[in-house]
Amino acid sequence: MKAQEKDIVSVIKEQIEHFGATATMVDVGTVVEVGDGVARIQGLRKAKNNELLAFPNGVMGLALNLEEDNVASVILGDYSLIKEGDEVHCTGRVVEVPVGNELIGRVVNTLGQPLDGMGPIKTTKTRPVERIAPNVVDRQPVNVSVHTGIKCVDALVPIGRGQRELIIGDRSIGKSAIAIDTIIAQKGKDLICIYVAIGQKTAKVANVIEILRKYGAMEHTVVVVANSSDPAAMQYLSAYSGCAIGEEFMEQGKDALIIYDDLSKHAWAYRQVSLILRRPPGREAYPGDVFYLHSRLLERAAKLSAELGGGSLTALPIIEIQASDMSAYIPTNVISITDGQILLETDMFNAGIRPALNVGLSVSRVGGNAQTKAMRQVAGKLRLDMAQYAELATFAQFGASDLDKATLAQLERGKRMTEILKQPQYVPLSLENEVMILFAVTNGFIDDVPVEKVSAFENAFYKFMANNHPEIGKKIAADKQLKPETEAELKKAIAEFKQSSAY
Amino acid sequence: MISTISARRYAQAIFEIAQAKNNLDEWKKELRRIAELMHDRQIADLIDNPKVPFNLKAELINQKLVKTNDLVLNLCYLLISKGKLKNIEQISDEYDKVVDNFRGIKHATVTTAVPVNDAEKQKIAGQLEKITGKKVTIKLQVDSSILGGMVARIEDTLIDGSVRNKLDLLRKDLVEATK
Fold first, then answer.
1. Which residues of A touch B158 (CB under 8 A)?
2. What is the pTM of this model?
3. What residues does A65 pair with on adjacent strands?
């Protein structure tokens, strides 16, 4: 309270000293038409593209279409307060969001205003929402991994810091779950997470925030929310403001992870704005610049060069598809922009394989370089084995009775691998646990465990290793690779565990 | 919205003809005259009626606009055939703007809280001419709600030196400070 009084005093003092000294000179226009969150303004001849406009009653707008004698603007806020004939002023500013460490642990809207009822956010810095992505010389190759704590992702589609990896799949088959597990896995680590909820159901967003709180993940997370009830312009801008918040951490030399959940709805919001602005519709009624809409957003994810602090911003955009149709407009666009995709499939989800990751079609174009050596040592064989298993499994559907021994062994191994790659929600694993269990399965130590007991084996194995041989896990975590002597110790420990048959 | 753009195109064309013939003011007067003619509801309705043949409309205009030059009549015929004679008012306004722009004249609306006398008006005009670098003609308005000072609006530019605006800014600063 004391500080506030001082501020007011200083403002009044300044005003007394300078009152009446200046006249303001601004560009003005008149609202001629308003509706659907868009206002058409006559005049404003000097307005610039993306400039912030001031309407009466403190409502702000964003100049988008500059035409010969009018400007079309989307309204950021309550457009029912605006009426025909209102005077609109140029401000000479662009849309900005508050950024900084103060935002961590908070839930904010597109403009950075708090939504969580935890009081004002005392940030000292703002950043423009739109920005050109870092250029070639400002970047360096992706070389550090993001540990997601999900076995199949870390082993098969590794994600590097600064990478853009798409999560794609039908509705409710665990796209957000992968993102949320990744956030939870960062607990106590150095990766700051930003979760941008675009056009989602408010109840679902509340649920996500609740889960993050429950698992203590809000301590390193910023949530940016533009619900489906918010104006389309706010939904469209929210992705960029989330990105600006992330860029601030990146430029501080820190590592940040941003999740856009989801970009399909982002494209819908932009389509709505564009159609109301009377921009010509193209394929699926999206405007012509819908590719640029996403490419300029995702390009802002980067790994900065050492001279710029070496910070990174990793992007995990989510795309929802209809009836597994990956060849729709927005999915193909975003697939081509990103550095790989995690494809989730309904059939696998229904068969109980969760996460329902399609091993064949999911790829990571850069993450392999960033994968820790230990993981590369065990995962290299896994992908090949999984591919062979998938091929044989379709073949063996018609009767496995007269197959040769080697084929049967491969099929059995494949079943166990599939079983191992299953993972319940909200239990991200540590790197050493992932490496040890994958080592066990790819080297055939689980071949003699009945398929239905694999999951019990896995859980008991983690417990056994933590209690009886914690040093092996520590060595893997420290070395980031499987040294021959560690490997020998691990083999011995697995044999010991199987002897005890504690599962 | 669309019609102002088309009105501007017509006005520009008329201006170019008038400039070539060096009779800018004559055209200005004639356009006003046609606009006034169209204020007559009966004439406007007749011109607007698609059932009335072109010849009849042309003759009517010809009779009403006695003693005018052929080009003005041609403009009327053109506008009748395009069905745009009803926009003549806008065309006339746009033409005035084009001519003013050509002559370097700007129109300003100056609002003050109390009436100003001629000497003050001259001073204000002089100041505005200094700011814009063009000749300024002033239209005066009195609005006590601005409390003091003055507000000048030149086309799209608003120069606000009113006490009301300063109080609004003060309020904004205070709200910002308490946030």
1. 25-28, 87, 89
2. 0.86
3. A72
